[in-house]
Amino acid sequence: YTSHHNMWTKPNWKYSTKFPLESIPLVWDKCYQAYTEKATQTGIKGKEDNLINSSDAFVFHSPYCKLVQKSFARIFLNDFLQEPSPDFSGRYAGLESLRNLKLEESYFDRDAEKALMAASNSLFTLKTKPSLLLANQVGNMYTPSVYGGLASYLLSASPSELVGHRIVLFSYGSGLASAMFSIKITKDLGPKLNKLLENLSNISKNLQNRVKVSPEEFDKTMKLREETHNRAPYTPVGSTEGLFPGTWFLTEVDSMHRRKYDRVPLVQIPNGNLQQTGDVK
């Protein structure tokens, strides 16, 4: 789903504005509707089944983890409104007052949002929380955040446990453009899947190997960034010892703001070759 929305409006809060608060739940709803229609047509989802029941996992664009939980709650709401006979003694307990809620009237309804997040929490924990390792530990990666979520989910279980899983992904970009699609892990645990999981296997180790810095050191780094932003010519200062092998880093900005980079040498990896570092403009 795509549309023109003023997502980057920086309003003066003395005046009323609906952006970007309205846009995000709108795209969840639009993508839900388009995906469920196509999933039903292709047999991925049964006509009488809901989206959450027909999928093993949900991975969302994740600027921050609370928004991911809100995303799942929105899927839960759409399923709820599509149910011909909701189970108010089970999954939908306590949501009787929301039965006739209109989607477009719910965008700013904080009470409804809280109720839906509470009611869907156990399903969120089962089907989405395993995808939040990198979002929780690294923060917002913007465009690749949904794929960081996919990597996190693949790391959350053994290959044999992942077999047959259908994973629904939701990707989003301000402005706005969004997509909902799904992938299925086949029963063939062949070399492609094993290679993929092998490439992901060092993520947890790399997270554990991060170097902690004090708040004072962080403040100094940010102050340096403020003072040197857009400076030209400029030669960056600081150590590259903490960078991972293969990381590109800035070495120079000339008087015309042209940037020059170098690369930390790569290390020998299984079935790989040692690559040499070099300059690039």
Helices, strands, pairings?
Elements: H1 23-42, E1 57-60, H2 65-82, H3 110-119, H4 121-127, H5 133-138, H6 145-155, H7 159-162, E2 166-173, E3 177-184, H8 191-200, H9 203-208, H10 215-228, E4 248-253, E5 259-263
Parallel strand pairs: 1-2
Antiparallel strand pairs: 2-3, 4-5
Helix pairs in contact: 1-2, 2-3
Keywords: Transferase
GO molecular function: hydroxymethylglutaryl-CoA synthase activity
Protein name: Hydroxymethylglutaryl-coenzyme A synthase C-terminal domain-containing protein
Descriptive notes:
It holds the Pfam family HMG_CoA_synt_C. GO terms for molecular function: hydroxymethylglutaryl-CoA synthase activity. This protein is α+β, with helices and mostly antiparallel strands. It folds into two domains: 23-208, 3-Layer(aba) Sandwich (Peroxisomal Thiolase, Chain A, domain 1); 227-281, no CATH class. It is 38% helix and 11% strand. It has helices at 23-42, 65-82, 110-119, 121-127, 133-138, 145-155, 159-162, 191-200, 203-208, 215-228, and strands at residues 57-60, 166-173, 177-184, 248-253, 259-263. The strands form two sheets. The chain has a three-stranded mixed β-sheet, with helices on both faces. A two-stranded antiparallel ribbon has the order 4-5. The two termini are 37 Å apart. The model is unreliable at 275-281 (pLDDT under 50).
Offer a few descriptive terms.
5 strands, 3-stranded mixed beta sheet, 2 domains, 281 residues, 10 helices, two-stranded antiparallel ribbon, alpha+beta, globular, Peroxisomal Thiolase, Chain A, domain 1, single chain
Give me the Rg, rounded. Answer: 23 Å
Overall body shape: globular
**Helix-strand makeup class:** alpha+beta
Please tally the helical runs, counting DSSP H or I stretches of 4 or more residues: 10
Specify the helix fraction band: 25-40%
How much beta, percentage-wise? Answer: 5-15%
Provide the CATH architecture of the largest domain.
3-Layer(aba) Sandwich
CATH level-1 class of the largest domain = Alpha Beta
Q: For the terminal residues, how far apart are their CA atoms?
A: 37 Å
CATH fold descriptor of the largest domain? Peroxisomal Thiolase, Chain A, domain 1
Order of adjacent strands in the largest pleated sheet: 1-2-3
Number of strands: 5
Average the pLDDT over all residues and give the rounded result: 87
- What is the succession of H and E elements? HEHHHHHHEEHHHEE
Largest sheet: 3 strands, mixed
CATH superfamily of the largest domain: Thiolase/Chalcone synthase
Low-confidence stretches: 275-281
Give the domain tally: 2
